[in-house]
Amino acid sequence: MKTGLIGAMREEVLLLKNDIENLKTEQFGSREFYSGTINNQELVMCLSGWGKVAAASTATTLINHYQVDQLVFIGLAGSVQPHLNIGDIVVANQLIQHDVDLSRLDGFPTVESPFWKTFAFDVFPHSGEKAIQAVDKFVLNLRKGSYPKIHSNYNPAVYVGAIGTGDQFIASKEGKVRINERFPQVLCTEMEGAAIAQIAADYQLPCTVVRVISDKADEDAHDSFAKFLFEDISHISVELAKLILS
Ligand code: ADE
After folding, report:
1. Which residues line the pocket of ligand 1, CB cutoff 6 A?
2. What H or E segment, with its residue span, contains residue 187?
3. Which residue puts its alpha carbon closest to atom 2 of ligand 1?
4. Global pTM?
């Protein structure tokens, strides 16, 4: 099983590069792709950059050039539900492009075709189950003190649910309400997951998205996101990635 691992920003995945054996680096367009193995598992890793277009382009290269068998995305998200706290982890069972709105085309014949109708993508049950097991193991290891580079008081709750994706950094009450009203099932919001899920669905490949909550998508989101990105996420995502790959 060859895995295509994507992160939007260097802090979210790049530390993992140190663990890749037989590392080979290739450039396609503006992106570098790092391929090799970790614990004998084949891997190709890439930083997509922010947003749905960047994520879709990266996923397509991973599939068409590297023939990966699954796509995995690890990164940060803003929570849009009051019970999700900073540091909690969300494993997607559904990914929804919350900024797509075809409602004005209601009744238009081609919108009825399955290809156009839905911008919500379900995660294959098997890959979803494997991701949940990996995240549960991560939390168990945390509690055992197995990760000296991660804060000893970090004790996240794990949620499984819908993740919303849009080309917007949400940082206001109005922005959150807009997502909550259209998609009450969405737990958190980010900018790439559902684009990768759409490419995975096109090619009938499993797709795993795991997000750590960095902010509450409110007026404090900028500061909270920056703090989590620069102080916390790197070691958390490396350990999550290794468990998801294993
Ligand atoms: N990624 C992390 N926090 C986010 C937010 N508030 N909006 C969009 N993407 C995010």
Report:
1. 76-78, 169-171, 189-191, 214-215, 217, 221, 225
2. strand 186-190
3. 77
4. 0.94
d(CA 11, CA 238): 10
Say whether pLDDT at 108 is over 90: no
Distance (Å, rounded) from C-alpha 77 to C-alpha 209? 11
How confident is the model over 1-7, as a mean pLDDT? 96
Q: In the block, which residue shows the tokens 């891997």?
A: 43
Question: Of 97, 66, 82, 67, which is closest to residue 209 (Cα–Cα)?
Answer: 97
Tens digits of per-residue pLDDT, 125-138?
888 889 999 999 99
Residue whose Cα lies nearest atom 4 of ligand 1: it is: 78
Distance from Cα 121 to the centre of ligand 1, integer Å: 19
- Active-site residue numbers? 12, 215
User: Which residue would you say has higher pLDDT here, 40 or 110?
Assistant: 40
Q: Which fold has domain 74-245?
A: Rossmann fold (3.40.50)
Beta-carbon contacts of 231 under 8 Å, excluding residues fewer than 6 positions away, are none
**Neighbour-count burial of 19, counting CB atoms closer than 10 A to its CB (0-12 exposed, 13-18 middle, 19+ buried):** middle
Give the distance (Å) from ligand 1 centre to CA of residue 116.
26
Q: Atom 1, ligand 1: which residue's CA is nearest?
A: 77
Flag whether the ipTM exceeds 0.95: yes
Inform me whether the pLDDT recorded for 115 exceeds 90: no
pLDDT band for 185, please (50, 70, 90 cuts): very high
Mutation test residue for ligand 1: of 9, 174, 225, the one with most atoms within 8 Å of CB? 225
Distance (Å) from CA 12 to ligand 1 centroid: 13
